[in-house]
């Protein structure tokens, strides 16, 4: 029968039956369009011209950051038969990096990413190759310290990538939030895969393979990253910046929060190693710790698809309080004496670390002028590294003198301290 129009624009009459009338330009049999989905913010993010290219180079350069320490330890210990020497060399390198990295980042802000990152990376790569040469040919021990110290000029590639996102989306807070979440997830992924790749290369190929591969990846990645000049932030005249980010209101308190968060990471790692070794499952400690990184990586990606916080100070406090609550799970799991239970607790505990780091980095970007983003974010990373060193020392001492299960209270206390510092951060200045 013919289809007649009804008084209602949404209904049509077919015989004695009312049926829905098709809307103009609408096919009733066409498939329904799906909602935006969780990945939509990331699709929009990487639709930015040049974003995929500089991200690919940056990831290539960032992967070795999780390889160098493990590679150096395995290479030196395998050749000299001393883990004490290997640990001392890497510790000195970390200390020198904490001193040199902010100055390298300041040069990046002042002269541009490409002009500084490429030569700084070349010096760091030469230091890695010198370390390999010294170990291979039995050079005196002091040469190992000197060579590894030269790698401290490695630029903060994660900070440079975040600075590019901040420049490209300076008028879009939602895109910056998604970008920071992606970068944090990338950090977790690289520091999870890096040690695994290093251990495999050093053991299955030859002892120097991890260091050599890391050096090649680092130099190649930085060259690819620096070649993307269209997305590089412009250099801000020096007159528009203050002398040091440490003098800006709120920055010292934020760095204190990052330091306390680093204590959480460092203590959790060393205590988990001690706990697994005490149960006779030391070889399983690596995969167990990787679960914490997996939880953080997934949480970071999901957090990036959410709306950015209207009040990032309050959001940071909420994230740190949630981290404190979730960090109480590993001590409870350790009391059962089961490594499997601890692994599950670490997976859940890791879910709060990425949102905390993303929100903290967003605050750093908010309080810093554009011409000091690299230096400010490098200071944040340095604070985290300092916290990791302090957390490792504290957690290891407590695990040795008390018990690994009791030492799990160290990351809980450090997370609680970070929450207190967040409250102080919110007080009117």
What does this structure look like?
This protein has helices at 40-46, 51-62, 68-80, 83-111, 113-136, 141-149, 157-168, 173-204, 209-227, 251-278, 285-304, 312-327, 329-334, 339-349, 353-367, 373-401, 404-407, 409-426, and strands spanning 4-5, 11-14, 17-20. It is mainly α. The chain folds into two domains: 55-235, Growth Hormone, Chain: A, CATH 1.20.1250; 237-429, Growth Hormone, Chain: A. Strands 1-2-3 form a three-stranded antiparallel beta sheet, with no helix packed on it. Helix 4 packs antiparallel against helix 16, helix 10 (251-278) packs antiparallel against helix 11 (285-304) and helix 12 (312-327) runs antiparallel to helix 15.
Question: TL;DR of this structure?
Answer:
It contains 18 helices and three strands. With 429 residues, the protein is mainly α. It has two domains: 55-235, Growth Hormone, Chain: A (Up-down Bundle); 237-429, Up-down Bundle (Growth Hormone, Chain: A).
Distance between the amino and carboxyl termini = 77 Å
**Low-confidence spans: pLDDT under 50, at least 5 residues?**
1-36
Number of helices: 18
**CATH superfamily caption of the largest domain:** MFS general substrate transporter like domains
Rounded average pLDDT? 79
Tell me the number of strands. Answer: 3
Which structural class is indicated by helix and strand composition?
mainly alpha
